[in-house]
Amino acid sequence: MELKNKEDIKPLCPHCSTLLSELWFQKLKGFWGQRYIYFCGSCRKVLGVSHRKGFWMG
Ligand SMILES: [Zn+2]
Fold it and tell me: Given its phi and psi angles, is residue 33 left (phi above 0), alpha (psi -120 to 50 degrees) or beta?
């Protein structure tokens, strides 16, 4: 599989198919520590969770 860098097009939200021109995130704190959840700014469905800011599914 080839990996191609595409900076000129915007990814689509898998839930509402809106262009993800921006990605929203929220910092959560709980017994597990600190987590960042990333979600679509249009439908607000969660796209991923990370324990580090700016790091997908990490
Ligand atoms: Zn969406």
Answer: left
Number of independent structural domains in the chain: 1
Cα 8 to ligand 1 centre (Å): 20
Taking the centre of ligand 1 as the mean of its atom positions, its distance from the CA of residue 42, in whole angstroms, is 5
Q: Please check whether residue 51 is in contact with residue 29, taking contact to mean a CB–CB distance below 8 angstroms.
A: no
6: in domain: no
pTM of the model: 0.69
Instruction: Look at residue 33 and tell me if it is in a domain.
Output: yes
**What is the whole-number distance in angstroms between the Cα of residue 5 and the centre of ligand 1?**
22
Boundaries of domain holding 15 = 11-46
List, run by run, the mean pLDDT of 10-residue segments along the chain (58 residues). Answer: 90 93 89 88 92 64
